[in-house]
Write a structure and sequence with these properties.
With 236 residues, the chain is of the alpha+beta class. It contains 4 helices and 13 strands. The chain starts with 29 loop residues before the first strand and ends with a strand.
Amino acid sequence: MTTGPATGRSRRPDPPTTAPDPAAPRDGITPAPGPGVPRDLPAAGRGTGPEAPHGRQGTSTAPVLGVGGEIGPKLRRLREAAGVSLSELARRAGIGKATLSGLELGTRNPTLDTLWSVTAALGVPITALLDAAETAVVRGTAVEAVLLHVFDEPGVTFELYRMTVPPGPAQNSPAHHAGVTEHITVFSGVLRAGPAEAPLLAGPGEHLTWQADVPHVYAAVGDTPVTASLLIRYPR
């Protein structure tokens, strides 16, 4: 599938952004148990854009606490099922072999960016490494997302999240594996999100969609937090 930014039906002036707080913590993201109720995505229009990136962009540097021992055996099974060596998977994911070995052995806590990179290299959704019995809450400086539901259809897996993006720095997320798309419906606030080279802009009731197998960003525009739904579609 060819990658590239989606385009919207209309352009609007880009509201001023709030300067990022220099004292804000780095963009660490930590999954933790939390409640969630599956719900359907509301119908909405196409988002506007593309827009130029704004705000300080960060990546997750905080560990995903308390899951290293649980993720390790799952990661090793997925790697062996794919017939990929430790060295080759580390190369594809762009991480050190020692880091990957530590994840599999449970001696090293992964960052969220590391998990995204490894699962993208394996061609599986991130929930393949998480406990399906618990709803995950992904927290960070730029995003808080509650995993509401994971469901499968022939040839595709979907992850549905309820997402909040506070004002402040933008979050920079690594590429998913080939063919993955993201779909966001904004309920409140103004969101800038999409491919890092050409993000899109959407306000309440508007919808964004893009090819997520490229680096992408999320940021609130102005002083109002963004609430939205996020649907990630993973082809198998």
